[in-house]
């Protein structure tokens, strides 16, 4: 599964934050209008191609005539409580669905996943949940809301003191390291990457459904 994410909520992938810097926060990158800071809270996002799901009435037939139900995950919002040793993040999101055959009342249950990644690739946890939508007789559209949460160990999301000191050390003109960017050091960059966590939410798709999303 491809874990490139759409930017949502606080920040996405290598968190680009502007207004969220706080006093004492360690700024690790700056650009025009962009500030990237280290934080214990994970980035929250929806991986590419997993924010939509489509089902068909006939197996193996993905034509428009066979389309049954289509649903989208939207309005992803996140909160984070980083006041304890285990940082808790919670994401809420809406599911909007549409069916092609509006005859009769119907209930549709769709699975979704919640995955925590460390360093952009290492899966820390993955859980599967379900969301249920109810269509009334004659109703084409249905909507519901759901939420998902995860924990991250503060120690794992914090830089070692020696790495923090190398980044924040005051350098005077004439010092051998004055002209060197500490963030260009592979050891420093690797340590920063290990503190980056992401909480990813999306539909739990079959291989066929994922391929359909990627090629449509």
Helix content: 10-25%
Main beta-sheet annotation: 5 strands, mixed
Output mean pLDDT. 81
Radius of gyration: 22 Å
List the strand order in the largest sheet.
Answer: 1-4-11-8-9
Order of helices and strands: EEEEEEEEEEHHEH
Oligomer: single chain
Strand fraction: over 45%
**What is the overall silhouette?**
elongated
Q: How far is it from the N-terminal to the C-terminal residue, by CA?
A: 17 Å
Low-confidence stretches: 1-24, 30-36
Number of helices: 3
Number of strands: 11
SS-derived structural category:
mainly beta
Structural description of this entry:
By secondary structure, the chain is mainly beta. It contains three helices and eleven strands, in the order ββββββββββααβα. The chain is elongated. The chain starts with a strand and ends with a helix. Mean pLDDT is 81; it is low at 1-24 and 30-36.
